[in-house]
Every structure is written in structure tokens, then in C-alpha cells.
Amino acid sequence: MSDSQETPHGPNSTSHVLADATNASTSSGNNEPADTNGTSSKSSTPKSKSGWDGKLRVGKQATLANPEALEDSDYSDDDAPPVDQIDADEDLLAGESPDVEEIELLHSRITSMAALHLERFQRLKRLCLRQNQIQKIELPDTCKELEELELYDNLIKHIDGLEEYTALTSLDLSYNKLKHIKRVSTLTNLDHLYFVQNRISKIEGLETLTKLTYLELGANRIKEIEGLETLTNLTSLWLGQNRITELKGLSTLTNLRSLSIQANRLTSLNGIETIPQITELYVSDNKIESLEPVRACTKLEILDFQTNPITSLKGIEDLKDLENVWASNCQIESFQEVERVLKDKEKLEEVYLEGNPLQRANPVLYRNKVRLALPQISKIDASYVKAT
Question: Which of 60, 76, 84, 100 is the most buried (most CB within 10 A)?
Fold first, then answer.
């Protein structure tokens, strides 16, 4: 479950929160102030409408400086901090009411789910065990009504033991050591599914999860978009930081609204025309040279193509609903083209153009030129130019 989501609680619901974030030996040591999205307040990275930072996930940053440095035989880091562990028989939930519906144990050095004796909590709806050292998923039979399970930032290598937990609507296994997506086919009520920062090389095993609306597979080793054909209810798909070379396998996703495929190996946007209904497209940090295929996506509101060898805005002339255009660090030279293509976009609020030749050629006058060319905007490169 994303931090930006809210967990509904009725007037009679009971929740338990126990968080131990005081373990200095595993802190990241970052003393910069953080904004509400979990990112540094100094950052000028554009945010999506949901607050997402366009890279991985809002508010899901691990406390560990490097989560792969823990007990990984394939990883070597002489500077990795020592890790304390709780005893396997230590019961962190001793004395808690059996009627609790929500349990959070964050950064508590847990190595075993069995040690928590969760069988006592038969009304449990949400279980969050983020930032621990759990290697195996172990849930008791008494927790079959569990709806949300978050095991973000642990040491899990295999998806086991979830087949009968069919009430789950949200499952987060991000920042683990998974190589394959297996044994989730029975979880047909899943609505949100997160596998960020694992070692997954193939999208598979999701065919039966037709209720999914939100799928995150960022920061893996995926080379091809496949296995999504039946997920026709998907509205958001995040595939950033993989090894994808082309846009395909998307044509059946008729409800898709947000697509992120940043930091991959795309050289072309061919294929984007198969999902003309999307409203948010994030394709920064690729090798894309032309925006021409985007012409078909007439409902786009947010377009992020930063850090690509794009020289022209040709292809977005008719995208009248554009609100945000993020074009930093491209090869755009002409203020005249910026004005010609974007001045008639009445909904346009925010542009990022820094790092282009048109900015580097005259950085002193750059912002004034953008303001003159696009008088309707309120924000240039993360700085407000007029009250909103």
C-alpha cells in the first residue's frame, strides 16, 4: 500500500501501531529535511498529481542506506553497518488486544513472522512489517481475512504461503530479493500490487489478477512488457528503471491512465498510440529522439520526457489538455518553437526546460523569455512565477 493512500477506519475499528525507528546502526544518516513525499525538501524533481516523484514511489524510501547490503551472499560492502537482531522467541505484541485490526511494526529488527504469534489476532485486516529482516512469509490460518500486507524492505527471496489469503486487496513486496513472480494467482481480489526493487526479469503469473488497478514493477531487470493482457482494469503501471527496449503489450489496457517507463532503453515511442486514453506519461532518461507518436494521446495532462536527445516539440501541438511538460536536459534550442507549440495550451501550469540549449545559451534571461513566451504558466523549473 502506498504511503499516499489512506487506510479507512470505521468508528469502531481498532488499530495498533508499534514503530522502532531509533536503531542508529541501520539509519541512512541523511539529515536533510524531508517533504511529505519522503524526498529531500531541496529536490526540484517534478511530482505527478498523486505526489509521485517520477522515479519509484512516494514515501517508500528505505531507512537502510543500502537494503541489499544485509545478509546477501552476492553483495559486498565493507561499509555496511552491523545489524542487531531480536531473539526468535521475543514477542513484540505481548499484551496487545486480540481485537486489533491493524498492526505496524516498522524497523523493529524482526527476523521471524512466527515469533509475533499473529494467530491471536483473528480480526486483523492490515499488517505492515516494513524495514525488518524477514526472510520467509509466515501467516497463521487465523488471519485469512487479512486485506493489506506490507513486507517492504525485508530479505524475502520467494513468495510462499499466500495462496489461501484471498481477501488480500493490497500486497507490497518491494525491496526484497525476489527473482520470480509466482504463487499469487489465487489472490484475485488484489487491487494494488508492488514489486519495486527486486531482481525480477520477467512479468509473469499475473493473468488471473483482473481486479488490479495499480501495479509497480520499477527497478527490476525486466526486458519486455508482457503478461499484462488480461489486466484490463489497470489504471497505473510503473515500469521505471528496467531494461525495456520497446513499447508493446499494452493495447488491451483500455483503462490505463498513468504509464511510467523511465530510465529504460527506449529509443522510440512507437507503440504509445495503442493506449491513446492515457493522461500521464513518464519516459525520462531514455534514448528517445522524437515525440511524434505521442500525437495520438490527446488526453495527456502530464508529459515527462526529460533527459532524452529530443530536439523538437513536434508531436504535441494538439495536446490541448497538457498541464505539465517536463523537458529538462533535452536538446531543445528554440524559444520560438516553445511559444508556437505551448502558448495555446490554456491548462498549462508548469514547465521544466532547464538544461536545454535554449537555457544554457543565456541563463540570465532564460526565465524571463519563458514567461514571455508562456504567460499562462505559474511554475518554471520548480519555481513559482506567479500566484496560483
Answer: 60
Burial profile 70-97: b = 16 or more Cβ within 10 angstroms, e = fewer:
beeeeeeeeebbeeeebeeeeebbeebe
pTM, two decimal places: 0.80
Per residue in 69-81, pLDDT tens?
334 444 444 555 5
Instruction: Indicate the average pLDDT of the chain.
Output: 84
Tell me which residue range forms the domain holding 195: 13-25+46-213
Q: What is the pLDDT of residues 273-315, one digit of tens each?
A: 999 999 999 999 999 999 999 999 999 999 999 999 999 999 9
Q: In CATH, what number is assigned to the domain containing residue 51?
A: 3.80.10.10
Say if residues 162 and 183 touch (Cβ distance below 8 Å).
yes
> CA 325, 326, 330, 336 torsion: positive or negative?
positive
Is residue 372 situated within a structural domain? no
Report yes or no on 307 lying in a domain. Answer: no
